[in-house]
Specification:
There is one protein chain. This protein is an alpha+beta fold. The protein contains 19 helices and seven strands. β2 and β3 form a beta hairpin.
Length: 483
């Protein structure tokens, strides 16, 4: 209970302290003021609430009498406590005021001393490693790989050993400009995005006291403008006119080889599933048999409900699935993969993780198909190329409206695989349009597969193609070891 602290009470407290006693006396005159008796001394303290948090501030040692010599008298303690109470009511931290009174200088002098004192911070190396570790924890491996590459360019080596609190926006802009000047203009723009994210992370409240990075330091950081390039300045390149879409004949070759039997069964079927559904490689290698549904109302097809995790920025897409119709020969591919995954312990993964997998991931990693596609003779596209082809050739050859390919590619709609009836699947206009688009696409792929075989009959020779693919893969492995 609060009690009025008197000279008699103070004198007793000093005697009790010498005897090793320990207790607190709460002053009834100034709320929050306390006289704390401990074996090592008798001191004044002030308890109050600053920005909603309970704080205790030490005011200094208590002394008997009415002079503040060597400590604070009762009146001196009450005066200082009242000043602190006034400051916290106004939302001001009294720490600087208390430091000034302890040093016997003005608040202005103390503020200047504190401003000149080096603030705690992290080195550039510690900041980057800690940030990348958090990115690995909260984002996908591809995001971590992208950020790591952009934070480890040689031009950022100038900050080695530097405290991040002392790195200015202009210094960082100079490093970005150096990357831009060597022709890596797209890289410099990507670096701006990642560095802004790094500085925002460093200034978050949970670590700002440790890094001393102020809010918004890099908010106006920007890369130099791209070098002007007028259409017509470059030599005409017919292949470039198709954009990022691979040549049609290469998609036909890849499909022919995937069907030929010259690849491991799962790989060949996986490449067919990739081409036939035009989904991202992560969705394909992470496909699970329980995400495919068949309906009695429709024959020779099934519906693939792709969960949000396998979409780009999946965590921002909600909890519902993206539906992709698997029609014509794609449905047969799904059925064959389903049979291959029908064994105890598979957990239903169409592409289960191999024995060498050291992660907690139960399905194959996203790059499973890349090397096999790269080893195919006459095929020069990556797994993402088939998505460009679907959008580009779909508008040109298959009657897709501008941007209509997003129905299949963009994953914007959401449905639940557990409560969708066959009537919905067969009658919903949007699903109906998806099914017609995928039928047109699979027919187009079949046509180019046949053209590729007519152009190169060797695509019918399983042994020849198997030897060629394995030779390229073996040679590539030897080259990597030699490097």
């Amino acid at each position: 209970m609060p009690d009025l602290i008197t000279a008699k009470a103070l004198a007793k407290a000093i005697r009790d302290q010498r005897e090793g006693q320990r207790y607190d006396i709460i002053d009834s005159r100034v709320p929050g003021l306390e006289l704390r008796v401990k074996p090592r001394g008798v001191r004044w303290s002030m308890r109050c609430r600053l920005h909603g948090d309970r704080k205790r501030y030490d005011l200094g040692p208590a002394v008997a009498g009415d002079q503040d010599i060597g400590g604070l008298s009762i009146d001196g303690a009450r005066s200082r406590a009242a000043r602190i109470a006034e400051m916290v009511r106004a939302g001001h931290n009294p720490a600087t005021y208390l430091a000034a009174t302890a040093a016997g200088v003005s608040i202005e002098t103390q503020r200047r001393v504190e401003a000149e004192r080096p603030k705690p911070s992290w080195t550039w190396e510690t900041s980057v490693e800690s940030f990348l570790a958090d990115v690995m924890r909260t984002n996908r491996p591809d995001t971590h790989r992208d950020y790591r590459g952009k934070l480890r360019v040689p031009e950022l080596g100038r900050f080695a050993g530097r405290q991040v609190a002392g790195i200015t926006r202009n210094e960082m802009a100079s490093a970005i400009a150096a990357v831009h000047s060597r022709g890596a203009e797209v890289m410099s723009e990507g670096m701006v995005r990642v560095i802004k994210r790094l500085w925002s992370w460093l200034s978050e409240a949970v670590r700002q006291d440790a890094t001393s990075v102020a809010d918004g330091v890099m908010i106006k950081l920007a890369a130099p403008a791209r070098t002007r390039s007028e259409i017509g300045e470059e030599a005409f390149d017919p292949d470039a006119e198709a954009g990022d879409a691979p040549p049609e004949i290469e998609i036909g070759r890849a499909l022919a080889l995937a069907r030929l039997g010259c690849l491991p069964d799962r790989i060949g079927l996986g490449i067919q599933l990739l081409i036939g559904t035009v989904q991202r490689r992560r969705a394909v290698t992470g496909a699970n048999r329980w995400r495919f549904r068949s309906y009695a109302e429709v024959n020779s097809e099934c519906a693939w409900y792709i969960p949000p995790y396998f979409r780009k920025s999946g965590t921002k897409r909600g909890t519902r699935s993206h539906l992709v119709p698997c029609v014509a020969w794609v449905s047969d591919v799904v059925e064959r993969l389903d049979r291959m995954s029908d064994f105890e312990g598979s957990e239903g993964w169409l592409f289960p993780a191999g024995a060498s997998n050291k992660s907690k991931r139960q399905h194959a990693e996203a790059g499973l198909l890349n090397d096999w596609i790269g080893a195919m003779p006459g095929v020069g596209w990556s797994p993402h190329g088939v998505r460009y082809a679907f959008a580009s050739y779909g508008e040109r050859d298959l009657g897709f409206a501008p941007s209509e390919a997003k129905l299949i590619l963009d994953h914007m709609e959401g449905v639940e695989p557990t409560d969708v009836t066959g009537q919905f699947y067969s009658s919903d206009p949007k699903i109906g349009r998806k099914r017609s688009m995928m039928r047109a696409w699979t027919d187009w792929c079949d046509d180019w597969c046949n053209r590729a075989i007519r152009e190169n009959p060797a695509l019918r020779d399983r042994d020849l193609m198997s030897d060629e693919i394995r030779r390229v893969r073996y040679r590539r492995g030897s080259d990597d070891e030699a490097a």
